[in-house]
Amino acid sequence: MDNILTITEAASLQIKDMMKENGEESSFLRVAVKGGGCSGLSYGMGFEEETSELDFELEQHGLKVLVNKEDAPVLKGVVIDFKESMMGGGFTIDNPNAVASCGCGSSFKTATNAGTPEEC
């Protein structure tokens, strides 16, 4: 599946710096969706050494990325960016599939998958 998600160059550089700091340079970045959050679904990102036959493998700006095939439809079209401001920096996730998100911005729901809402 092509173009599951996009990780901007700024986000890729930040993630690669984090990987280097943690001795994870050879790892993949796992981008996932899990049930939870006040809108029903939330994002997960972490480092993994191994792939599975259940994963799509992507590469963006030299960053190796894994997405579980079950998560791919919910993540299709997502853009992950890193923005700097006077208050510091942080990752932003723009998901065109999200029909609603919670006030705290950490969870969402789609038209086809709402997950199980929890309190923020």
Automatic annotation (TrEMBL):
Record GO biological process: iron-sulfur cluster assembly
The Core domain, residue ranges = 5-105
Cross-referenced InterPro entries = ATAP, ATAP_core_dom, FeS_cluster_insertion_CS, HesB-like_dom_sf
What is the annotated signal peptide range for this record?
Answer: none
| Any one GO molecular-function label of the UniProt entry | iron ion binding
Question: PROSITE patterns in the record, alphabetically?
Answer: HESB
Report which superkingdom the organism of origin falls in: Bacteria
Protein name per Swiss-Prot or TrEMBL: Iron-sulfur cluster assembly protein
